[in-house]
């Protein structure tokens, strides 16, 4: 059975009558997807009303059986296009097979006829360790792909559960994150180790600025007073800093400290990982010690990211707990691996490792508890 190519989209009640030009551009693609899933919640949180499918949309759906509406219970904002299509995949397809791919598109753009096929070829060559788009930009150290320029990612057996867990733990209930799906999905890709590749040069080399043209829906964007990068930056800054001015002031200081600590721990984690891969064998050939070093470096890099994430998204001691966890857990393992057997410090470092593990657990629990308070 050939791998599936599934396109995910979402919309608003006010935008549904104008969604057909975007859908028609997908019909006209040189490589048509196997499925297009238009994920819609029962009720729109932004517009406070239920969805009604307009006649022109119903007619298009009847003409193209590979297009369908997938109803979801929760409105997750623009992120519904990802969460909804993953929910559909989980319910109606099941475990992904090798090569299955999702593409996320916006409802207010008519895409060039070769856009999907072009990106499909590029993403297929990259594999599951990458996410690709025709345009991605940096925001506070994150490489951020966006649905306006198509986002392509291949599925692994655990992708659905990982995305759902990340959304539930870090995004759900936070109004500041509601409109910035580009940002929280970029953070998800980063935490999972997926590199984002931008293929903007493929567009500009043809004398073009974008791989789409705006449709009538573009005039009713929720943030239509701003365009392009300015709109994205303001929305994302709001997601990090919150709507209240006083909270923004104090939060930025905390976030700045978190960023600095995250950078230091992350850089050291990368250095330790590189040393473990290339230099540690000069000190030991014990497979168990080599694997312990690798575990310590991986935990350090993961929790270095979480120092920054928790600084931005929740209040509480989570950043400090994650930082101390890195020092105690990873630091003690580095020492235990490097120190010779019988060295006096080994007796001191041994009991410190589980303390570091407990600090990691406490950090995650702190995020959960403070997230619930925030709601």
From TrEMBL:
Keywords: Membrane, Transmembrane, Transmembrane helix. It is a multi-pass membrane protein. It is found in: Membrane. The keyword Transmembrane helix applies. One of its GO terms (cellular component) is membrane. InterPro entries: DUF423. The chain crosses the membrane at residues 260-277, 297-314, 321-339, 351-369. Its main location: membrane. Pfam families: DUF423. This is Uncharacterized protein. It comes from Effrenium voratum.
């Amino acid at each position: 059975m050939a791998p599936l190519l599934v396109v995910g989209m979402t919309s608003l009640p006010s935008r549904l009558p104008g969604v057909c030009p975007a859908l028609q551009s997908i019909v006209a693609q040189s490589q048509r997807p196997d499925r297009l899933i238009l994920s819609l919640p029962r009720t729109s949180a932004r517009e406070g009303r239920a969805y009604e499918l307009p006649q022109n949309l119903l007619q298009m759906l009847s003409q193209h059986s590979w297009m369908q509406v997938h109803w979801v219970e929760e409105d997750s904002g623009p992120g519904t296009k990802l969460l909804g299509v993953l929910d559909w995949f989980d319910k109606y397809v099941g475990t992904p097979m090798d090569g299955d791919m999702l593409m996320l598109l916006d409802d207010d753009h008519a895409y060039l006829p070769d856009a999907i096929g072009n990106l499909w070829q590029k993403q297929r060559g990259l594999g599951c360790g990458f996410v690709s788009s025709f345009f991605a930009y940096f925001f506070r150290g994150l490489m951020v792909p966006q649905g306006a320029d198509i986002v392509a990612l291949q599925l692994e057996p655990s992708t659905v559960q990982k995305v759902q867990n990340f959304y539930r733990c870090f995004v759900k209930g936070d109004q500041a994150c509601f409109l910035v799906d580009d940002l929280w999905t970029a953070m998800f890709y980063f935490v999972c180790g997926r590199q984002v590749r931008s293929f903007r040069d493929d567009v500009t080399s043809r004398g073009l600025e974008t791989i789409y043209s705006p449709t009538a829906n573009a005039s009713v964007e929720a943030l239509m007073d701003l365009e392009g990068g300015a709109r994205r930056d303001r929305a994302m800054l709001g997601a990090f800093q919150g709507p209240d001015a006083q909270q923004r002031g104090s939060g930025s200081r905390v976030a700045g400290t978190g960023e600095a600590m995250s950078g230091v721990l992350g850089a050291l984690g990368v250095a330790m990982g590189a040393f473990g891969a290339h230099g540690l064998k000069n000190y030991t050939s014990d497979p168990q010690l080599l694997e312990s070093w690798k575990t310590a470096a991986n935990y350090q890099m993961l929790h270095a990211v979480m120092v920054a994430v928790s600084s931005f998204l929740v209040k509480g001691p989570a950043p400090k707990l994650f930082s101390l966890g890195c020092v105690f857990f990873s630091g003690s393992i580095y020492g235990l691996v490097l120190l010779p057997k019988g060295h006096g410090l080994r007796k001191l470092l041994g009991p410190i490792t589980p303390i570091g593990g407990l600090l990691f657990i406490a950090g995650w629990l702190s995020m959960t508890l403070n997230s619930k308070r925030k709601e």
